[in-house]
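Private note to self, pasted from the team thread so I don't lose it. Backbone tokens:
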């Protein structure tokens, strides 16, 4: 009896691995896709709610919402403007970033490349604790300790840098509850966030890159400048954007320290200006329905500013992806 062998099956084409769709993989893929869609739905719902309430307020506003320097619901008709709030929010956040980012990156580099292991672990633990402190605690500390102790610094800046207009103090006896003080407080608050993320990103730099630079005779600073910072640049930018988001939206700490004023002043040491979050928390409880719509409209502007900042950060990060070390 003769048997015929089955015809040989053709081997799968090279480069195409046979994928097996398991139930667990399908469930995980569906959950992941649903989570991403759910986040987009939430963002869209927030934007829609803010837009509807903002249009209701702006359509009834008898002042220019974007240029009026006054926020007063007691007037007839009421006046609402965001010029002062937008200025105070952006300026205080910029001051915080200018102070916090270099210090945070320096701390991260010190922990990962200079400090002994035990000392670095202690510093990292303290930074983690600072990140867990509630914002109201920072606000109380700023109002009771930081504000009184900044009077001397304000007078020094006014004496030596008052010619720049920015650091000119119109009233030497005024309390330093200003945007400059708020910027310093916000810098202290966002410092742990930027430090922690930057530290973890710097630790991901391939050791072979650093060892190769050392083998070529580079100093420790040259290794950091040529191998570490280019590789970690995108992560540091992302960490900075996280800190900037915290600075733009901070509420209680700013409300505790800042003496809100409807005045737009270029003198950062004078108690003038305000921020979106601080104005919302201060006026929401006593506002009428129309006033609350106006406050929600200012929240929409803050929402748009945050989206623009994050979008710009994503563009910067995307342009840095061509660095070969990050793609290795």
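Design output:
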């Amino acid at each position: 009896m003769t048997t015929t062998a089955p015809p040989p099956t053709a081997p799968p084409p090279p480069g195409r691995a046979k994928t097996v769709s398991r139930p667990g993989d399908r469930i995980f893929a569906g959950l992941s896709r649903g989570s991403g869609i759910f986040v987009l739905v939430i963002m869209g719902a927030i934007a829609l709610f803010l837009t509807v309430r903002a249009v209701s307020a702006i359509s009834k506003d008898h002042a220019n919402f974007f240029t009026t320097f006054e926020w007063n619901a007691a007037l007839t008709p009421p006046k609402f403007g965001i010029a002062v709030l937008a200025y105070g929010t952006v300026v205080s956040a910029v001051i915080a970033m200018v102070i916090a980012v270099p210090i945070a990156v320096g701390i991260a580099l010190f922990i990962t490349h200079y400090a002994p292991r035990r000392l670095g672990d202690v510093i990292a633990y303290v930074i983690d604790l600072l990140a867990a402190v509630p914002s109201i605690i920072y606000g109380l500390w700023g109002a009771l300790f930081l504000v009184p102790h900044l009077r001397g610094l304000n007078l020094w800046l006014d004496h030596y840098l008052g010619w720049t207009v920015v650091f000119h103090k119109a009233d030497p006896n005024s309390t330093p509850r200003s945007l400059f003080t708020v910027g310093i407080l916000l810098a202290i608050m966002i410092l742990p966030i930027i430090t922690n993320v930057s530290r973890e990103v710097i630790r991901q730099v391939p050791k072979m890159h650093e060892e190769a630079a050392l083998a070529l005779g580079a100093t420790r600073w040259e290794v950091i400048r040529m191998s570490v910072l280019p590789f970690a640049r995108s992560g540091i930018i992302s960490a900075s954007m996280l800190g900037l988001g915290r600075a733009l939206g901070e509420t209680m700490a700013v409300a505790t320290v800042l003496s809100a004023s409807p005045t737009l002043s270029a003198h950062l040491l004078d108690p003038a200006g305000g921020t979106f979050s601080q104005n919302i928390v201060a006026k929401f409880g006593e506002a009428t329905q129309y006033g609350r719509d106006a406050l929600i409209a200012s929240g929409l502007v803050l929402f748009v500013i945050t989206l623009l900042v994050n979008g710009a950060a994503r563009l910067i990060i995307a342009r840095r992806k061509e660095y070969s070390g990050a793609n290795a």
